[in-house]
Write a structure and sequence with these properties.
Layout: H1 2-10, H2 31-43, H3 57-85, H4 87-93, E1 95-97, E2 101-106, E3 109-118, E4 124-138, E5 144-152, E6 162-163, E7 169-174, H5 186-191, E8 194-204, E9 210-218, E10 222-224, E11 226-228, E12 232-235, E13 238-241, E14 249-251, H6 259-264, H7 266-310, E15 316-319, E16 325-329
Parallel strand pairs: 2-10
Antiparallel strand pairs: 1-3, 2-3, 3-7, 4-5, 4-6, 4-8, 8-9, 11-14, 12-13, 15-16
Length: 330
């Protein structure tokens, strides 16, 4: 539009203008040719037959202005693309892990559990959680490996360990015979020198770039005999997540022995399950009794209010000096 206005103001679009008069831009005879010349200036692909002349200072000013605007637009576009591609690091910051890992009985097995969550609405496609135990080991030949990385499997409902992070999930590792924590009891775990590394990897839905979030748990951050509190609740057909309780845990009855001892002595697990059932029943009884007491208190308070409202108000009489009542107030 600017080039067309320059040509129109200079009279270059007049078909009756003589051929000996120089134009601001050569071969610009209509709005279409002015638009093509603007594109050639914007992307610097060469003028061809169209070019400006020194006869029109306004055309020179428009050329400089358009070149500066072109540089600014290119810089902004490159910045947007760079920020879009660099969002994988920021996206990893929205993937959160629980502050502590817990060990408790789940499905009659001793399990190592952590909780992961995603704070953003955009999804992580093909999310995979991997666990590695790093510890110092010694081979039968006497070789000392200071940093021995052992891959441990995690419990997953689908093949390939792909998880759907629609809401916070508890990632579970069953401590079985293949687990490096199979021989560790609660006391031995606190004295051992190991670290559990958790890696959450997936593809960002908006950019298609792979992102990765990592954390680790040392023995001081592993709570034996704890379980994560539930944070997902259903209210009127809508699920809500309370992230303020994301890392909260509660104590549960858990054997203090190792998983090997549990496999060798199933009676320990049976006794633990019985204690858990008794404690659960006791808590239900206490809760029901508290509810009954509250309902009785409310009923007594309502009856007291009704009784107070039906009480007769005594009459008060004022007597004159002669002894005859003069005024009665009820």
């Amino acid at each position: 539009m600017g080039w067309w206005l320059v040509a129109f103001a200079h009279g270059d679009l007049d078909p009756h203008r003589g051929s000996g008069i120089d134009k601001c831009v050569t071969h610009v005879k209509s709005f279409t040719s002015a638009f093509l010349f603007s594109i050639e200036v914007q992307v610097t692909i060469g003028f061809g037959g169209r070019m400006i002349t020194e006869q029109c200072p306004a055309a020179i000013a428009v050329l400089i202005t358009q070149n500066i605007a072109s540089l600014i637009i290119n810089a902004v576009m490159l910045g947007c693309i760079f920020m879009k591609t660099a969002q994988s690091h920021r996206r990893a910051e929205t993937l959160i892990f629980s502050r502590h890992a817990v060990i408790a009985v789940r499905n009659n097995h001793l399990c190592f559990m952590i909780r992961v969550g995603d704070l953003r609405k955009s999804m992580i496609i093909g999310a995979v959680v991997r666990l590695q135990v790093v510890r110092k080991t010694t081979t039968p030949e006497g070789e000392v490996i200071p940093i021995h990385q052992i891959e441990v499997p995690t419990e997953s409902a689908v093949a390939g360990n792909n998880i759907f992070l629609l809401s916070p999930l508890v990632i579970c590792h069953v401590i079985d015979k293949s687990s490096p924590m199979y021989d560790l009891s609660a006391m031995e775990l606190q004295c051992s020198d190991l670290e559990v590394i958790v890696i959450l990897e997936g593809v960002v839905e908006t950019t298609g770039i792979t992102t990765q979030a990592r954390t680790s748990y040392v023995t001081e951050e592993i709570q034996w005999g704890h379980r994560f509190v539930p944070i997902v609740a259903e209210e009127e057909g809508v699920y809500s997540v309370d992230y303020s309780k994301f890392g909260n845990t509660v104590k549960v009855n858990t054997p203090r022995c190792s998983a090997r001892e549990l496999d060798e002595k199933p009676s320990i697990l049976i006794q633990t399950l019985q204690k858990s059932e008794l404690s659960h029943q006791n808590s239900l009884r206490k809760r029901n009794s508290m509810r009954r007491n509250n309902s009785m208190r409310k009923g007594n308070a309502a009856g007291l209010r009704r009784n107070n409202s039906s009480l007769a108000v005594p009459k008060v009489q004022f007597y004159t000096p002669e002894g005859s009542p003069s005024v009665a107030i009820t």
